[in-house]
Design brief:
This protein is an alpha+beta fold. Helix content is 28%, strand content 22%. The structure holds aspartic acid.
Length: 358
Amino acid sequence: MKSLKRRDFLRATALASAGAVVSKSFAKFPIEKLESSEIKPIVIASANGLKAVEKAMEMIKSGSDALDAVIAGVNINEDDPEDMTVGYGGLPNEEGVVELDAAVMHGPSYRAGAVASLRNIKNPSKVARLVMERTDHVLIVGEGALKFAKAHGFKEENLLTDKAREAWLKWKENLSKEDDWLPPHNIEDDDIGEIIKSYYRHYGTIHCSALDLSGNLSVVTTTSGLQFKIPGRVGDSPIIGAGLYVDNEVGAAGSTGRGEANLLNCSSVMIVEWMRQGKSPEEACLLACKRVNERCREKRLKDEKGRFKHNVKFYAINKKGEYGCASMWSGGSYGKIQFALHDGKEARILEGVSLFKA
Ligand code: ASP
């Protein structure tokens, strides 16, 4: 969706076509003093964000503010039923209900907005933006977030696709052989309902950060969170400083992966601070991995060598248009460390670095 000019915004508000209302009032915020020749627009996202970085860069090139651009980018994933980690089609909580978390942060105004445990609304990033622009708050959760979204005209819809419901049912039926939910079986079968051996905690999210032609930075992170979570569980994605952060003078960062680790380490704000101290985006992302690993004291979360065994992944860009991505693990079942990038020339999937190799 194209950003609205102020006069269009007034007309749009009058029409109250909610959910689609986007104010374009950012021009009044001071713009960083960079020579325009020094500004290298850039968009980074998690690996599921190739279309998102394309969309965001297309908007930035036509003059959009970075926040308009990154939100429009991640809306593609939120609307896509095939992306089972975000928005419509996201994997549900343990009761089979999709609960979404999202946050936005706007560099030039140093404002942010977020929603958590939001049900029935497929674009939580748009609601997060309205929390930033149309309330005195930063974070609204659960029932309150749904009421707030409806007050702005968002329509409730069932976000659980058949594909996500079937995945949830398979998990539920195979969780324990002592409970009442059974997978398909024969009458001779004995070990039915055994915990799926290959089952692992599955995470997934889209994070997207951008630097626009005015030299301004903005970020968004949006997710359906940890699959089959306890209802009401909130990860790092909607928490400013943990799942995303931007300092318009320095850079922007965001994360995907085990949210609990980032909540405990405020990883995104740390990455931005390390960049302020002179680290490159990649070095800063790697330092965040080190910090998560070194601070973990819980044996159940470590492998036999005492290393943090879950994955966390960080994405960062700085004011100069440099970028980086690092994760705790690569290789084996963790796969390649990939991220999406648009440097103004083309959208690409690139490989990042990791602290450990499986
Ligand atoms: N970080 C998200 C969360 O913990 C999930 C993910 O990125 O995969 O909710």
